[in-house]
Amino acid sequence: MAQLFTPGADAIYRLVLLTGVACLAGVPIVAAGIVRSDYVTGVGIAPQQPVPFSHKHHSGELGIDCRYCHTTVEKEATAGLPPTHTCMTCHSQVWSGSDMLKPVRDSYASGEPLQWRRLNKLPSYVYYNHSVHVTKGIGCSTCHGEVTAMQMTYRANAFEMGFCLDCHRNPEKYVRTPDQVWDMTWSPPPNQATLGPQLVAQNHIRGGQRLMECGICHR
What we know:
The chain is built from 10 helices and no strands. The protein has 219 residues and is mainly α.
């Protein structure tokens, strides 16, 4: 009777079996890599906007304060987007005939707001309040990066749960004095290890496990 399997069939079977197991084990790893990739999270990618607004020029070079456009950042949960008439405060006189700013002029004339593409959006089950953070000494750049250096604005962080928990677990590492909250180039000073705990106490920031409670962010 002729032999059904060649002498090397067992080796081939083992190789196929190990390859299949390796592929199955690798699928979650590959999937996790894709989900956390910049392509999916949008980190570092500047999407096309109705007008190519440059934070680097307006805020970095001209020195326009964040709060001039984001007027509710100290008072409400959202920082707010500027209405078109805020833009026209300057651009009715500066670059008033620019083709690039035609969408702004059309918006102002029609009353229809510009449709900006939102960069930083949290899931609906996450509660975040801008006013609480900035008034307690957490600066804009901690979450949004050095916006004053961004020619076209992009998302600086993916805002995964671990990102928020790191700050909630150790707020003394990130808290700043009030005059530094709006400084986009801020980095912890040499005395942060001493200053941080002082600011945490001064600003009545809840420490320990209290900031780690689920209900802080999930309401």
